[in-house]
Amino acid sequence: MIEMPEAITLAAQLNNTIKETAERIVTNYTPHKFAFFSGDTAEYDDLICGKTVKSASAFGGHIIISFDGAEIRFCDGAFPRYNDAESKPPEKHQLLIGFTDGSAITVTIAMYGFMGVYLENAMNGDAHYSAAKNAIPPVSDKFDFEYFKGLLDEKTIKLSAKAFLATEQRIPGLGNGVLRIFFLMPVSTRKRR
User: Fewest CB atoms within 10 Å of the CB: 35, 79, 161, 187?
Assistant: First the structure.
């Protein structure tokens, strides 16, 4: 699963690296039982080929690469990797976006993953996407104690800390990796507000 720290880091790296125009997209080059694509993958070329990357962004465990009028979204176990013009993409990948300068982004699936190419803002009706996009991230100053208390109710108060923090999109982008680090970290080194 792409967790929030990874999503933020990958989006920043993509922003610093890619400002090219997409010229091809290959889906399911290496079939994977748990690689999930949105919509008709035959339409992906028409949506992004010939368009230039505007920016990359992240929220929760989602990574969005925005083009002129379209966007690509990755989440769960769909990990994008940049390949410059001189490096060969991995032999196994579930998505490849080739750019006019010879570079590419390849996506490989770890366990299961979701990828989709959409018209810009077309995902706003998807519940999973909307929950992640509309949540206040814990790295924001708006995520304060009052907000955190607002996540508690009769059902959530009875959950384990892990179940409360990492399920039901209460705090999108938190998963086992982040929680392991946090709970193993000495209390004295945790940031206090």
Answer: 187
CA atoms within 13 Å, Cβ hemisphere of 62: 25
**Residue in 41, 74, 69 with CA at minimum distance from that of residue 57:** 74
CA distance 144 to 127: 24
Identity of residue 102: G
Query: Which pTM was predicted?
Result: 0.81
CATH superfamily entry for domain 4-133: MutM-like, N-terminal (3.20.190.10)
pLDDT digits (tens, 9 = 90+) for 70-111: 999 988 889 899 999 999 999 999 999 999 999 999 999 988
Beta pairing class for 35-37 and 104-119: parallel
Boundaries of every domain in the chain: 4-133, 136-189
Distance CA 114, CA 75 (A): 5
Q: How far apart are CA 27 and CA 107, in angstroms?
A: 9
Q: Which residue is listed with tokens 């994008």?
A: 80
Residue 192 DSSP class: -
Q: What span, in angstroms and rounded, lies between the C-alpha atoms of 138 and 18?
A: 28
Compute CA distances 44 → 18, 31, 36, whole Å: 19, 17, 14
CA angle 54, 60, 64 (to 5 degrees): 20
CA–CA distance, 3 with 166 (Å, rounded to integer): 10
**Which pair of tokens denotes residue 77?**
């176990």
Report yes or no: 58 and 11 within 8 Å, Cβ to Cβ.
yes
